[in-house]
Amino acid sequence: MYWQEDKECMKRDELEQLQLERLQSTLYRVGTHVPFYRQKFNEMKLDYEGFHSLADIRKLPFTTKQDLRDSYPYGLFAVPLREVVRVHSSSGTTGQATVVGYTKNDIKNWSDLVARVLCGAGVTADDVIQIAFGYGLFTGGFGLHYGAERLGASVIPISAGNTKRQIQIMQDFKTTALVCTPSYALNIADVMFDMGINPAGLSLKFGLFGAEPWSEAMRREINQKLGIRATDNYGLSEIMGPGVAGECSECNGLHISEDHFLVEILDPDTLEPVAEGEVGELVITTLTKEAFPMIRYRTRDLTRFVPGDCPCGRTSKRMHRILGRTDDMLIIKGVNVFPTQIESVLFNIDGTEPHYRIIVERENHQDRATVMVEVQESLFSDRMSEQRELIDTIRRQLSSELGIGVAVKLVEEKTLERFEGKGQRVIDKRKI
Ligand code: DLL
């Protein structure tokens, strides 16, 4: 049930002592080996050797994606390259790529933390895990691969893409756990349906999905279509990759591996901690990373802590599924809108398919948002009145959820592009 029970179920005071010791050695590491941090500490006249309380974290400087870009490629590494055994990179959709590195020990820890996530979701050494994340510079494929091997499961390193082959292999190799982005899981489910394959005849039991935001409604849809239990797992390359946090089988918040990461949730504007249980930006400090330690990395991901204890017995703090990113948040007619809010509404309306796009434009200085949503083929035959009714229902529910009016356009099934990796659902033409 646990991968590392001694760590996952630690008493709070012991955990905090461990965090403090690990923070002290991380500060020493970056203060002596990373000129970027040495300079920042000097400028702030920060006496990191005098750190005796976790609350002192608030005196530390932040690190941003821009800092990583400015140090491209190896400027923030805390060890010489000869100690680095792996390099990953995140391309992102805009700007320069960022590069991260791992020592042998970092890879060992990473594998353990991903094994924790798998184990927490219910996967064991008896499972056959199909890894449909891209292998390469993206951390998803290799990260899950090493964790699954560490767990002792049988790994199918198929990588992303070639959906029909994924399904064939799933059938032939008796895959029990599917690992990919939630949008790819839906894509696989649809293709399976088109191929006339009934998921009930497969051996699939678990789905471990992450790398992009998704909603509770989408989880229900995937569970129902594939007949599995889908769990969410979170991570980012700057901090490690997958394995930072993951849901256990309770599916109520993601357990954060706090013995390796110190997490804060801050108001993105004031950079002060938010009130208990409020939503804010997740800020992470690594506690054990050797090659690429990060101090107060601003993830731009928005979440909140889940209060209370988890019945699973893990004592780590849990975070709510990611609600969106500060830079993904659309401001339409001055109102903050997250794509996941729109997703939740669409998933709960009968007749719509779980595929949509959000297009934002500006006409005569006015924002205009259009939600394109696929609907079941039968609606496109000749029932215009039903189409109109459906448009009205969607419009009404979206405006009550979002507080603004949006246009709705129904499109035929399979018109919108499908995703094999991270989905891109928003087309914001205002920036162009
Ligand atoms: O996506 C690492 C990963 C791989 C996590 C596989 C889970 C599974 P990056 O490519 O650096 O790393 O992208 C990190 O993806 O800051 C979030 O915005 C988003 N993200 C990752 N996991 C989730 C999730 C990998 N479960 C960025 N829910 C992060 C929502 C997620 N967003």
What key phrases describe this protein's structure?
432 residues, alpha/beta, Rossmann fold, four-stranded antiparallel β-sheet, globular, binds 5'-O-[hydroxy(phenylacetyl)phosphoryl]adenosine
Walk me through the structure.
By secondary structure, the chain is α/β, with parallel strands linked by helices. The chain folds into two domains: 1-327, ANL, N-terminal domain (Rossmann fold); 330-431, GMP Synthetase, Chain A, domain 3 (2-Layer Sandwich), CATH 3.30.300. The chain is 31% helix and 25% strand. Strands 4-3-5-6-7-8-9-14-13 form a nine-stranded mixed sheet. A hairpin with a 6-residue loop joins strand 8 and strand 9 (254-256). Helix 2 crosses helix 3 and helix 10 packs across helix 11. The protein is globular and about 75 Å long. It starts with a helix and ends with a strand. Bound molecules: 5'-O-[hydroxy(phenylacetyl)phosphoryl]adenosine (DLL). The site of 5'-O-[hydroxy(phenylacetyl)phosphoryl]adenosine (DLL) has 22 residues, from helix 6, strand 7, strand 8 and strand 12.
Ordered list of secondary-structure elements with their pairings:
Elements: H1 5-8, H2 12-33, H3 35-43, H4 65-70, E1 84-90, E2 98-103, H5 104-121, E3 128-131, H6 139-151, E4 154-156, H7 163-172, E5 177-180, H8 182-194, E6 206-210, H9 216-226, E7 229-236, E8 241-247, E9 254-256, E10 261-266, E11 280-286, E12 297-303, E13 305-306, E14 318-319, E15 324-325, E16 330-332, E17 335-337, H10 339-347, E18 352-363, E19 366-375, H11 384-402, E20 407-412, E21 426-428
Helix pairs in contact: 2-3, 5-6, 7-8, 8-9, 9-10, 10-11
The structure holds 5'-O-[hydroxy(phenylacetyl)phosphoryl]adenosine.
5'-O-[hydroxy(phenylacetyl)phosphoryl]adenosine is lined by residues 90, 133, 138-140, 143, 210-213, 232-237, 241-242, 299, 301, 322, 325.
